Request: fold
Amino acid sequence: MTRKILFVSPVPPWPADSGGAQRSFLLYQALRRLGEVDLVLITANEIAEDALRTMREDFGLKAVLKPHPGGLTLRRLDFGYGRIGVNVHRLTRWLLRSRITLFRSGPVAAEMRRLIRAGGYDVAVGRYLWSVVQTGVIDELPTWLDFDDLESEVWQSRADEAGSGLLKAYYRQIADSYAARQRDFARRIAGGWVAKPRDAARLGRPDLPELPNIPFANYPKPAEPLPYTGGDALNVLGVAAFDYRPNLLGFDWFVTQVWPRVAERFPLARLHLAGKLKDEDARARWSRVPGVVVHGRVPSLTPFYEQALFSVAPIFQGGGTNIKVIEALAFGRCCVGTTHALKGFEGLQGLHQGADADAFAARCIELLSAPAACLEAGRVAAGTAAARFSFDRFAAAVEAAMTAPSDTAMVMAA
Reply:
């Protein structure tokens, strides 16, 4: 008998114009191979009517629930961004720690319970831990969870970047609080997936398999390496949603601290930045750096990859894995990234690590010094990436986890 699956996500699967939305889309398509799937979104963001219509028609959208802001959370505080405001935010984070996001909302859970009973679902699949905790799904149905962007890892990455002193200790306490709560909730789920293997150990659930981020271009079949159309130009590409703070901070570091060293060696080199950027100060600051071209959001990335020798991923913070790293390989381009950005992609060809400004600049200069070799290395790397990060393999991992015997699932079902 076909199972009826409730898919709960704070990130809509449509339009699939960001890494998070693309993972929601791919997970939804994988679940459709296993049964009938209905979608419930939990988000405070406004969704365009045409996107809602598409999700109702093509993704089984049943409801959009507004997340509860909580009692004393940062959503209810407005002290500005001066020194006092920042310190109040930090104090509130320290006091509440993981309870800022990992709490059960009575009103939201009641509405979800009504939807579950009306829909007659057999199982639930959630994106992000907070969504199934706040909605109470974890208490109502055997639940499989996509553990993507662990909050403990996000805060630990901030601690790692904070140097030493009180700020590092403050971030570390928040990270530890999330880690403990994540392990508590991880014990209660029937199963799920992690974005990279080390997350399973962090959650205390070594049985959770890896469900790697895959390039959207690999749906439904692996992408072919793109031809190179850049001629003699020395083009480097940076792709990101620059409004996401870890991306903004990382690329600001790269543009201001690393790229000038590269441009000094190769004055004709050009760094093309493609992606949504609302911060006009950042746009102006980056555009003043010689050789940097800020394009903003573009209709298609294909021509940018075709004209680039390689891409860069200068990211120091955040959880999960960096989808733009593997996207570059899928299109046949090498990628230079920080240690943090390359986590989860260990052992892949075509990746070059730059842990600090000197090393990052050196890796870029090496690739620009040998364009033909750089492009050939990207072409070879594309084959490995296509085999490991295909949608068929992604969907098979989803099916294997949801059809394997589970003591937790049997207990909850009973």
Q: What stands out?
A: The radius of gyration is 22 Å.
